[in-house]
């Protein structure tokens, strides 16, 4: 089995956790997918471009972040294998993104363009069901995170984060984790030492 087949197998296995696909529909789906390979720190999306694809991480890790007016990074999303990563607002509205999507490690991303996705919605209704469920889940997760940031102490958020993202600390620089949690790397380091 070559690498492309392995990537496709991972992707189809992921879809089949939520929907049923027969071999005919699997081929239709795979014909709509593009493989993108990123080097460490390479960008997949930068501000000023509309996000025109849904993106699934097959290998490696990536993050979605923006820069505020003081050039401070704010990480909104960290993605590892079997996670989706995107500027969903830009994708759904087709407005220019304000986000960066950047590989943290060398990464392999499978992406489906908006036009291919629209065609799949017509030809493979299960795909429409899959993305409806994914987008609903993304909305719920976003609201949970917003409420958590307002009501939960930072160290508790950090503990939940490392539980959700197993082995993440070996893969992702501390400053990105701190940015995701909304604190400085120094403050996160202080909290970790304090709670040893």
Automatic annotation (TrEMBL):
Task: State the Pfam families in the record.
Answer: cNMP_binding
The residue ranges of the Cyclic nucleotide-binding domain are 21-127
The protein's name is Cyclic nucleotide-binding domain-containing protein
Superkingdom of the source species = Bacteria
